[in-house]
Amino acid sequence: MRLFRPHSHSSTAITTPHSILFVCWGNLCRSPACSAVFQKLLGIFEIHQPLSVDSAGILGDWAGSKPAARMRTAGARKGYRIEGRARRINRKELNRAGTVIAVDRSTLRELRHIHSRPVCDLFLFSDFLPGEYPRDLPDPFGESLEFHLDVLGIIERGCSRLLNDLIIPRFLKPQWMTAGSAYQSLLTPDNRQFITARQSG
Hints:
Blueprint: E1 19-24, H1 30-44, E2 52-57, H2 69-77, H3 91-96, E3 99-102, H4 105-114, E4 121-124, H5 145-166, H6 189-200
Parallel strand pairs: 1-2, 1-3, 3-4
Helix pairs in contact: 1-5, 2-5
């Protein structure tokens, strides 16, 4: 069942998946960072639902390893705790997850090789980014700390839109749009427009 369409602003109620799984190549940089950013957004918006947010990798070479040190440092600078241990995704998990988000096209192809017809919905992370962004989320592994920070900035933008498409339509809260609310500075233009339309509709 299609749970939602990226960039859709339909007023129809959207079903929230029971889990969101971010997947990259080694589960060391991009996918754990996506998970950390999205979980923090859920906390900021006080969304306490039975929603699982996790990450995994295509390869098992680094299974059990912590996220890359530079990504953890970059995350700490921006207020994120990027934690966990690397693990490899498997066919069964693709049937358990509600929504699986691949960070790039090669990861998406590998996921389809693992399971050609998974029950979950598969998306590219860039489906939640404006058109001027690259289709593949850049891999910062081995790059400078500044590069990691830049990638985190892209992740923040995409996760905000992901929140808009998956969560906000289902769990609107009046205080999000109250004048002078602290939430105002956290909402993206897309979030504000969407919430305003839903509350006035």
